[in-house]
Amino acid sequence: MADLASGSGPMFTDPDPEAARRVFRKKRAAFEDKVTSVRDAVARFVKDGDYVASGGFGANRISTACMHEILRQGKQDLGFAGHTTTHDFEILAAGNRSGRKLLSRVDAAYIVGLEARGLSPQARRVMQSGEVAVCEWSNFALAARFRAAAAGAPFMPMRSLLGTDTFQRSAAKEIACPFTGRRLLAVPALYPDVSFIHVHESDPCGNCRIRGIAVADFDLARASKRLVVTTERLVTTDEIRRTPEATVIPAFCVDAVCEAPFGSYPGNMAGAYFSDEDHLKEWLEVERDEDRFEAFLQKYIYGVERFEQYVELCGGAERLKELREMELHPGL
Amino acid sequence: MADLASGSGPMFTDPDPEAARRVFRKKRAAFEDKVTSVRDAVARFVKDGDYVASGGFGANRISTACMHEILRQGKQDLGFAGHTTTHDFEILAAGNRSGRKLLSRVDAAYIVGLEARGLSPQARRVMQSGEVAVCEWSNFALAARFRAAAAGAPFMPMRSLLGTDTFQRSAAKEIACPFTGRRLLAVPALYPDVSFIHVHESDPCGNCRIRGIAVADFDLARASKRLVVTTERLVTTDEIRRTPEATVIPAFCVDAVCEAPFGSYPGNMAGAYFSDEDHLKEWLEVERDEDRFEAFLQKYIYGVERFEQYVELCGGAERLKELREMELHPGL
Amino acid sequence: MPDYSATELSICAASRMLEDGATVGVGTGAPCATAMLAQKRHAPRLLVAFEAGGLAPLLPSMPISVGDSRTFYRAQMATSMGDVMEACQRGMMDYAFLGGAQIDPFGNLNSTVIGDHERPNVRFPGSGGGNDFASLCWRTMVMTEHDRRRFVERLDFLTTPGFLTGPGAREVAGLPGGGGPHKVITDLAVMGYDPETCRMRVESLHPGVTFERVQENTGFELLQAPHVRETAPPDEDELRILREEVDPYGYIIGR
Amino acid sequence: MPDYSATELSICAASRMLEDGATVGVGTGAPCATAMLAQKRHAPRLLVAFEAGGLAPLLPSMPISVGDSRTFYRAQMATSMGDVMEACQRGMMDYAFLGGAQIDPFGNLNSTVIGDHERPNVRFPGSGGGNDFASLCWRTMVMTEHDRRRFVERLDFLTTPGFLTGPGAREVAGLPGGGGPHKVITDLAVMGYDPETCRMRVESLHPGVTFERVQENTGFELLQAPHVRETAPPDEDELRILREEVDPYGYIIGR
Fold first, then answer.
1. Closest to A195 (Cα-Cα) out of A298, A291, A88, A119
2. CA–CA separation, B66 and B226 (whole Å)
3. Model pLDDT, residue C255
4. 251-270 in chain B: CB under 8 A from chain D
5. Burial letters for D183-209: b for 16+ Cβ neighbours within 10 Å, e otherwise?
6. With contacts defined as CB-CB under 8 Å, which chain A residues touch D133?
7. How near does any CA of chain A get to the CA of C222, in Å?
8. For residue A267, which phi and psi values (nearest 5 degrees)?
9. pLDDT tens-digit map of B249-266
10. In this complex, is the C-beta atom of C18 within 8 Å of any C-beta atom belonging to chain B?
11. Is the CB of residue C135 less than 8 Å away from at least one CB of chain B?
12. pTM listed for this prediction
């Protein structure tokens, strides 16, 4: 096939599995206690200029605790993978204010929106300013990029994106199938420098269980050069070994384990608590006015030291009890 | 890259996802009761000339009940995918005797052997006779072929097989990576006409749970044009819906559900019963002598109507109680 | 003859197009309400899939996100995004049911930017799973409000494929064969596509709506089907299920 | 000085090569016994992976199959073949530990056929996961009996890659860089590979074994390491663990 096209979008990460193999060769600690604090994990594993990815989907099972800490520690010049990132993206976008630039490049499949809740004014300001380099993808394309990296392959073949401006603005390439001759899309492996995944249960070594949908986290965990896990609760390795088929992320992929109860708040955590729609609405509301937003961030993020304090400010145990009710009785 | 090589092995199935899409478009019954007998499932879903695949690994979680039925019904001219197929392959190889030809083509990653137990004389006779066309693969390569088919992609890129006679005798091709320029292996999607997978639990619609390793069955189930599931026990759909993350095979991939307690016997079934090493040894032993083998098959397979009768002949409840003990107390 | 809103009418009209036993990938909002209505009324065996991994849930209420816990509540399987998308790529999903966006005569959609891509006037979320659903499912259904800002001759950005440039263009581009846009349901009419030209055409007008009014609210020339019918209005039963069971709080139908 | 069999010696010698904290993909038989011994003696944090999906099990006894339930008994994860193989491809597996086969001077292995492929004199199982492990793990260890039928100048069939035709050949073929054969442990000696030529060389001789005897039992010319040592014999502790805990029924060590 002569007329194979290439997307013109920027490639933010190196898809070469040989480079990745040299990094992964050093990841080995399957039996090591990796329990640490969110603050120390972010300080130790996130460097300015890193390419970051966030697990979960939308405002569901996201590592809010780590997103806040990245903002609080004032990390700069980060790349970010946006496969239906909603509130997590909204938090990081708050780092691009008053001359600061937390986000400098984004692989975008779904950003700036919060699904049925509307669009984030702050995220839109940032993404419309031209200060952030953007490469376009679809959710499946980004998931396939993590799949390729997790497999240790430089790319994955797939069949969407073709024929659209989304492809033109991506860093994907058209290829001819060696067996059928068909035109296919090849998406490059995406190895994030560091990823943050919130789970229901982890042991101190990082063997993790997830309730409900895994979204792309099976692959994201394996694709990441460094992986910080936050968990609703710590369980023993003995408990993990009772049902090994329930493990989704094995310890040897994990670099840090942080106990973070309600760590997805104000997002949803399956079986634990529903999303706090009032607080999410407040975020969208205050973002309209830069001064109010500044005060809001002071109160909830910059003004506190730990995520637990934020949860307290948002209503603490009382509010979480309500959200638990909503989660357990979804018909109401 | 100018010197990209291709394996010279035969391609037994069509890797084109367009052809497969037309078949999968008709697979829809996510809410239909598909409970039937092993006999009827094999009679209805296996046609002479079909390409067949078997789930599990080695003699572990295999659908022995269906392998026996295929032999009993005298199916002919079948293709077969051999990713560490041991006792299942041994059973089918018994169909290539006295002028009959059950197996006519095999994608081989691991065949004729039973791992630590030794090689099957009958399977070796068949594979050394030249009457069966063989294409060579590795276990990962066959798993990747199922992965490609499950993904609806015509191939998967990977990095083993390269540089060996295994590649030369495969139907794989070398390709150049569109991003790194590296030489890679491309393995073609493998869509079996019909597959047989034994699971721990299934509901009447075919939502299945597996205890322990899934091996390649997540992908095999999705790659198969027709899928026959045998299950240790039937559970209600209500039970399945209680923990949807535990489902490995969703109903809309399944065509038939057969309740087959001890259906992997004399193979191992995790948490239920260990393999019957005495009976497996007897198989290998009698295969040395064609007459004794004939009598053996008469007694255990051709002479009975149902798999349950075979289990009875092998010691029934008493023997299974012993195998359960061995499984639950593996230290002993 | 009950009274009903245009939104209720379009949801009811769309739900009748989802036959029992079909498989559909849905987005949040009206598409999800439509699928829920179909399940509760005439299509109990409609398999609903969500891009984040929810497969055949018993939806207890309207999801806020296509990945929230309602989307896999008592589901047959809570799986991964890849597994759902690969099922679409394998050819197992009949319908993609997408929400509002900028749409052109060939059913192509824009949900990325208005204006220049480097420095857009408006940045929208982007494809999400929309491009994948519309590329890989057999038939794409779109629900949106009907106005000239949404129905445009030329998109600022082609995010999600319809028929692209016309007959055969999807196949030439490498997309799976035989798929593409199916229906567009708005507050004014139901549109399909002309088999010859792949251009949008009016197939039924909602009660009291003239073709002229639809054309006025459309930024390109609309074709007409050989026999333009009147959209059948919702019946009592549909409205009761929609108002009492599907959307009791009126998130979508707004009351 | 305890008495011990050649098999016991080679298992003990091999197990000392597996350092604590390493990751190893093992086959059944001697390789598995070796890994178990290492875990129980000096490498409690040795991560053992089985190709069928068992990850970091607490092996209660010797598996009969690399997929039987012992291989994921109280494991950290019971996963898929693809997940384990992809971990190898990603570069996370230090050692591939393979069993006996026909081997050539460059450490290439044959486990497919003797004679012509279409109509072989002997059909062996084939690659299984061997080719993948040896292609994708960093270092390949092989345990086999030492005789001229096994150690041959030319393989009937190159199933599994060693150094292929010599230095750089793996990389030219497209295999991951920096991997390849590491050690061959037999009942007579421990062999490694000459860094210049990638040809097999004797590194240590088991007590009482001469180089000449090893060469006699090898179908190609063996090189010698600059300083050929004597293989350290097993100590009481190793033998006790091996005999009482690892292989009490003597499946492997045969007693």
1. A88
2. 14
3. 61
4. 268, 270
5. bbbbbbbbbbbeeeebbbbbbbbbeeb
6. none
7. 23
8. -80, 175
9. 999 999 999 999 999 999
10. no
11. no
12. 0.98
